[in-house]
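F.,

This is the one I mentioned.
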């Protein structure tokens, strides 16, 4: 089995990623060949029945852009009573997560290798998710590139549709100006989302968000990380 391809679609105003392919290690390629059928889920332009997909009625949490999958695998291992969807387009990261899921024996994860915007629009029904995670998204730090950041008003609209009342959106970034942008954007949406830490405040890193090697290295170098968690209002 060759590496699953991302679909080619017409230009859209919003995209959740810029595809940067990397070379798969032999182990990652074997993971695609043998493990993708167990944990992988191909894109389909119709809504998922999440209860049938996971075989239970446990709440479903989505991580957008899971990178190498370390955080997602750790959350899934620590919370077997939860189901997790992970979206990532970077092949080596997907391969790494497949190997981690095999190592941990996690049956409560499904992986989608596709644009998160289309997954939200086409595959997920209203109020279908208990939580959505967005950890360390591409900051597009140059001002002229800010419009490429995933968290913009249209994307907040999509989050509001798929997160059920009482559910949450949890983001983390190591770029302070992006953190401020997210805080202002979600704070202005007070009718649908409420800041768990209070207006204009960031949330201390919750124990439920695993500390990645990337973040540990950044801390040693004195880099800050900002978390924000917003609850979906009824």
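My design for it:
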């Amino acid at each position: 089995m060759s590496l699953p391809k991302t679909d080619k679609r017409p230009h859209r105003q919003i995209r959740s990623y810029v595809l940067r392919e990397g070379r798969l290690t032999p182990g990652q390629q074997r993971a695609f060949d043998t493990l993708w059928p167990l944990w992988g889920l191909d894109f389909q332009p119709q809504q998922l029945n999440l209860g049938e997909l996971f075989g239970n009625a446990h709440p479903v949490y989505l991580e957008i852009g899971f990178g190498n999958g370390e955080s997602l695998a750790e959350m899934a291992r620590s919370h077997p009573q939860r189901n997790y969807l992970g979206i990532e387009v970077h092949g080596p990261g997907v391969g790494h997560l497949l190997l981690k899921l095999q190592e941990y024996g996690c049956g409560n994860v499904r992986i989608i290798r596709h644009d998160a915007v289309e997954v939200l629009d086409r595959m997920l029904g209203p109020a279908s998710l208990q939580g959505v995670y967005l950890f360390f998204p591409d900051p597009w730090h140059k001002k002229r590139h800010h419009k490429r950041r995933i968290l913009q008003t249209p994307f907040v609209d999509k989050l509001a549709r798929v997160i059920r009342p009482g559910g949450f959106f949890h983001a983390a970034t190591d770029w302070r100006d992006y953190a401020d942008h997210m805080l202002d954007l979600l704070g202005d949406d007070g009718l649908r989302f409420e800041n768990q830490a209070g207006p204009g405040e960031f949330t201390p890193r919750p124990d439920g968000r695993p500390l990645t090697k990337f973040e540990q290295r950044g801390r040693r170098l004195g880099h800050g990380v900002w978390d924000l968690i917003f609850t979906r209002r009824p």
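The chain has nine helices and seven strands.

Talk soon.
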